[in-house]
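#help-structures
NK: newbie question, is this the right format to request a structure? protein is E3 ubiquitin-protein ligase TRIM45
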Amino acid sequence: MSENRKPLLGIVSKLPSGTALGNSGKTHCPLCLGLFKAPRLLPCLHTVCTTCLEQLEPFSVVDIRGGDSDTSSEGSIFQELKPRSLQSQIGILCPVCDAQVDLPMGGVKALTIDHLAVNDVMLESLRGEGQGLVCDLCNDREVEKRCQTCKANLCHFCCQAHRRQKKTTYHTMVDLKDLKGYSRIGKPILCPVHPAEELRLFCEFCDRPVCRDCVVGEHREHPCDFTSNVIHKHGDSVRELLKGTQPHVEALEEALAQIHIMNSALQKRVEAVAADVRTFSEGYIKAIEEHRDKLLKQLEDIRAQKENSLQLQKAQLEQLLADMRTGVEFTEHLLTSGSDLEILITKGVVVERLRKLNKVQYSARPGVNDKIRFCPQEKAGQCHGYEIYGTINTKELDPAKCVLQGEDLHRAREKQTASFTLLCKDAAGEIMGRGGDNVQVAIVPKDKKDSPVRTVVQDNKDGTYYISYTPKEPGVYTVWVCIKEQHVQGSPFTVTVRRKHRPHSGVFHCCTFCSSGGQKTARCACGGTMPGGYLGCGHGHKGHPGHPHWSCCGKFNEKSECTWTGGQSAPRSLLRTVAL
C-alpha cells in the first residue's frame, strides 16, 4: 500500500456539503470535483473517478461469500465462480456514503464503468464548445467532428483519414456544435474480452451482455439473444423492483419531514423551557440576593446591638473602676499619711463612700456573647414567591431553662412504650426554634443500675425532642436528661413503672338483668341481687350501685384497669359478652 495515500475519512472531511447532489453529481466526481474521468459505478450506486478510487486507503476484509459476492463489475463477470471459503479481500469505503465496497480481483479497474456518467460528461463538454474532449483515435488532438456510424469523436486529421478509408468513406460525419441538442451521444460499449467487438447480445444463462465472438466461444451452448429483444423482459423486472422501492422513498421522505417537524418543535420547546428556566433562575437569584442583603443587614444590626451593649458595659465598669481606685487610693493615703485626728475626722465620709462602692452590683463577665450562627438548612419563609433557606440565630441554649413535658413523664407500663418531650429554651426563656443539640438521656432502674433502658431521641428540628423508651419490668426508674453535660430543668426525676394494663373480662353495663337478657344465673361484681332467684343486679334493687359499671370488677370508669384478681370472693359466672 502506498503510504502517501490519504485515509478515506481525511478526504471525506474536506468534501463540501452536498457535493454528490444536484446536476453536478451526474458529471462531476465527489472527490476531485472535476468532470468524471473513467467513472466507476460502486455497488452503492455512487460514481467516482477511477484515479480517485485508486487513491483511497484500502483495507483487508474477510469474504465468506466466495463466488456469491454481489459486487458487480465488468471484469469480474467473466471470472469463474470460486468455491465458498474464507478469503482475504481488499475493500474500500465509498467516499459519499461510507458503504463498504469489496474490490474484485482486478481491483478498482474491474469495477463497472458508469456509461451514463460518460455520456453526461460528453454532453457537458459539448455545451462548453467541446473543451476537454480529445480524439478517440489519436487521443491527442481536440475533437471537431463525430462519426454517427462509428459513434466516435474525431479530430480534424483523423476525420480526413476516416473518410479516405474504403470502409468508412460513406460514414456520416457531424460537427460537434450540431450535437448540442442531443440527449445521448455515448460511445459503443465494447466487450472487455474482445475489445474489437461491441456488446450487442445478452446471455440468459450467465445473465450478462456478450459480443458476437463470446457467443461462438465460451457461451456457445447458452441461450443468447439480441439486447433489443430481451430488454423488455429485463427492463420490466427492474421497473417492478423500482415500483417496490419508490414507496420506501416516499415513506422515508415523510419520516424525514416528520423528523424535521419534530426537530423544529423540539427546538421551540427547548427555547421555551430555557426561557422558563432563565426567568425562574433570575427570579430565584433576585430573591436569594434580596434575602442575602436582609441577612447581612440583620447581622450588622446584631453586631451594632451587641457592640453597643459591650461599650455601655465597658463605660460603666470603667467609671466604677475609676471610683474604686479613687476610694482605694484616698483611703490608703489617709491611713499611711494622715494623723490620728485627721483619720478620725474623715473616717465618716470614707466609710460611707467605701460601703456604697462595695454595694454596687456588676458582672465580671461580658453582658453579651459572640454566639452568632448561620443555619443554611432552616426555612426562612418566602421571598417573591420563592421558598428560601438560611437564618441567623443568636440564641444560646440554656439547660436550666429547658423543660420536660408529657403525660408519661412520671408513669409508665411494663413492655409498653412511654414517651415525653423536651422543650429547649434560651437564657431568656424563649423557644430555640431549631434542633441539632446533643441531648443525652439515661433511664436506669433503681435496683438494677447496670441495666439501663434503651432510649430513642428524635430531633423534631423545631427546638423540641421526642424521647421514647420501653421498660421491660415494673419498678422505680431514675431518668437523667442532659444537654451540654448539664441537667435540664426537673432532671433527674423518677418514673414509676406499673405492671401491664389489665383489660376488663366482663361487660360495661347498666345492670345484669338488662345485659344478660334476664338470665337468673348471671352475676355481677357489684354484688347486687334481685328477688325471684336472680343472682345479678337490677335497677332499683338491693346492692345496685346506681351507675353503669363493669360486671367483672364493679368499677364505674369505662376506661379503667380491671382489678379483679380471680379470688374466691369474686363471682364465677360473670357475664363476659355484650348482649342486647
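mod (FA): yep, format's fine, and the C-alpha cells are attached above. The CA atoms of residues 338 and 344 lie 9 Å apart.
NK: thank you!
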